[in-house]
Amino acid sequence: MQNFEEINPETIDSAIDLLKNKIDAWCNKSCSERAASLHIIADQVRFKSDELSKLITFEVDKLLAQSYAEVALR
């Protein structure tokens, strides 16, 4: 079983503030910049598909094959 570290409220607040800044930056990007960013994200999801699939299996108790299909968006 995998253990996760406790996160304190200050860390959560900092993460929320960072997210708000990232959302503002995203809203100021052009459509072509957003598309390029989404292609980079898709490449990373494909690159880390094994790791992501195992995490999904662990979190929601799915079969690994189902998790791979979910990560592949099929």
Shape: flat
Q: What gap, in angstroms, lies between the N and C termini?
A: 28 Å
Number of helices: 4
Order of helices and strands: HHHH
Structural class by secondary-structure content: mainly alpha
Approximately what portion of the residues adopt beta-strand conformation?
Answer: under 5%
Pick out the low-confidence regions.
none
Fraction of residues in helix: over 70%
Mean pLDDT: 91
Overview of the molecule:
It is a single chain. The chain has 74 residues and is mainly alpha-helical. It has a domain at 48-74. The protein is built from four helices and no strands. It has helices spanning 9-27, 31-47, 49-60, 64-71. The longest helix has 19 residues, at 9-27. The radius of gyration is 16 Å and the shape is flat.
Quick description:
This protein has a domain at 48-74.
List the helices and strands and how they pair.
Layout: H1 9-27, H2 31-47, H3 49-60, H4 64-71
Helix pairs in contact: 3-4
Provide key terms for this protein.
74 residues; single chain
